[in-house]
Amino acid sequence: MSKKNVDDYLQEGMYGTRLPNESERKMYLGTFRERVAFVLTIGEVMSNKGLAELKRQLKQHPKAKILLNGNISYSFLKEEKALADRFSIPHTTVSNQENDTEIGLVLTYPYAVDIDQISLKDIEEKLAPKEKEDEEEKNSNPSKGIVSKLKNFFH
Length: 155
Prior knowledge:
Strand content: 5-15%
Radius of gyration: 23 Å
Number of strands: 4
Shape: elongated
Helix content: 40-55%
Strand order of the largest sheet: 1-4-2-3
Number of helices: 7
Structural class: alpha+beta
Largest sheet: 4 strands, mixed
């Protein structure tokens, strides 16, 4: 470890102790990216677009905690808080007027979990090909009923 010089002490005295990954902490409402399991943007929270996925994520991560952006009106956070209460997940509202972030909700752990797809958009894109495959599979397997047999007989 390197020794601190006078400039380091002066910088700490004037601006406070440097925090690692400070920009990452600002973006994810005070936590690190590696601890995040799921996020919703402010727009997704306000439009209740990600409620179904949030419910699925809360079932999948019962030991996590929710951080809510304090810049969002309480009326828009009602549904998310109700879901958290239903699954007994603690939630905290983070109000920091100095930090401007587009994240509205963070499902996080106190330790690293390193999940690749954490945003609603990424998860939907990941699930979309699977849903298409399932639909194609259903369409390719004709039902064995009398009507389908008659259709096959006449073709």
